[in-house]
UniProtKB/TrEMBL annotation:
Transmembrane segments: none annotated. One of its GO terms (cellular component) is cytosol. This is shikimate kinase. It comes from Salvia splendens (Scarlet sage). It is an enzyme of class 2 (transferase). The lineage of its organism: Eukaryota, Viridiplantae, Streptophyta, Embryophyta, Tracheophyta. Catalyzes the specific phosphorylation of the 3-hydroxyl group of shikimic acid using ATP as a cosubstrate. Pathway: Metabolic intermediate biosynthesis; chorismate biosynthesis; chorismate from D-erythrose 4-phosphate and phosphoenolpyruvate: step 5/7. It catalyses: shikimate + ATP = 3-phosphoshikimate + ADP + H(+).
């Protein structure tokens, strides 16, 4: 991964070149906030930071450019020029971190597209089925995959809701029961199995019926394996109202959710393991030096899914 940080900023005539801080050719190393573990090592040519002082106010600018993208400039809001040096350093580091974060996002998108172009021809049009517990990111990651592969994205739950007059999953469970929902889920998967070039986000319980696996075997199944603790935090953060299997009982939301998720996973864990590909966020976090799997971006997860699919196809 190569980065170039441009020093070719368009400077107004009141900015002295003495106010530009340059770094010689070398490398930029980015470290995670906690633990000091290096995540990226990027050769760089030089960096430029500009502190503009005009009419008593100061603006910080950072310009970043990669070989695949035009230069972009991140500019802070104007601040009083009488800020002390420690405040200036904090502001400078903050804006530089944002600028490089944006750069890394661009590089991750490039890596995603590159890997998709490698894998897509070998799929032969086969669809991808994302399985996993509720809250594991199947919809979010699925949309990233579909865009990169130029496949169509479909959400099983949304198709079921459309098929019963737009009722939500929670309402379907309440009015018709779980068995009715599962029957409709199987019917949707049966129809999708005859189609190609799809990325399908399945419901968390789709794996419990063997007939559903027969339908998904016409494509490639991907298990997004996320630690239960992370799932509980995510679900509690957005509320359990839309989760009919969780929206019961009183008590602390996290404890209640964690307990229910544990029960569901005991029932479904072996079924998830039937997937063709497993993407373990716990393993990814360990490799990247992350303390929280939720810090892993959907794009990074999608790239790992494609890498695992590539391994599956070459076995």
């Amino acid at each position: 991964m190569e980065a170039r940080v441009s020093s070719g900023l368009q400077l107004p005539n009141w900015v002295s070149t003495e106010k530009i801080a340059r770094k010689p050719a070398g490398s930029l190393q980015l470290f995670r906030k906690y633990g000091g573990q290096r995540l990226y090592h990027m050769p760089v040519t030089r960096c430029a930071r500009v502190k503009e002082r005009f009419h008593g106010f100061m603006t910080l600018k950072v310009s970043c450019v990669s070989e695949n993208h035009k230069a972009s400039v991140l500019e802070s809001e104007s601040s009083p020029a009488f800020l002390d040096e420690s405040e200036i350093i904090k502001a400078r580091l903050s804006f530089e971190n944002v600028a490089f974060s944006r750069y890394l996002e661009l590089e991750l998108d490039i890596a995603m597209q590159s890997k998709a172009e490698e894998v897509e021809p070998n799929l032969d049009g086969r669809s991808l089925y994302l399985v996993g517990m509720m809250g594991s990111g199947k919809t979010t990651v699925g949309k990233v995959l579909s865009e990169a592969l130029r496949y169509s994205f479909l959400d099983c739950d949304a198709l079921i809701e459309d098929g019963v007059g737009g009722r939500t999953v929670a309402d379907i469970f309440k009015i018709h029961g779980e068995s009715f929902f599962r029957d409709n889920e199987t019917e949707v998967l049966k129809k999708l199995s005859s189609m190609h070039q799809l990325v399908v986000s399945t419901g968390g319980g789709a794996v419990v019926r063997l007939v559903n696996w027969r339908h998904m075997r016409k494509g490639i199944s991907i298990w997004l394996d996320v630690p239960l603790e992370a799932l509980a935090r995510r679900i509690v953060a957005v509320g359990t109202g839309s989760r009919p299997l969780l929206n019961h009982g009183d008590g602390d939301p996290y404890t209640k959710t964690m307990k229910r998720l544990s029960t569901l996973f005991k029932q479904r864990g072996e079924a998830y393991a039937n997937a063709d590909v497993r993407v373990s966020l716990e393993n990814m976090a360990a490799k990247l030096g992350y303390e929280d799997v939720s810090d892993i971006s959907p794009t990074a997860i999608a790239i790992e899914a494609l890498i695992q699919i590539e391994h599956f196809l070459t076995e």
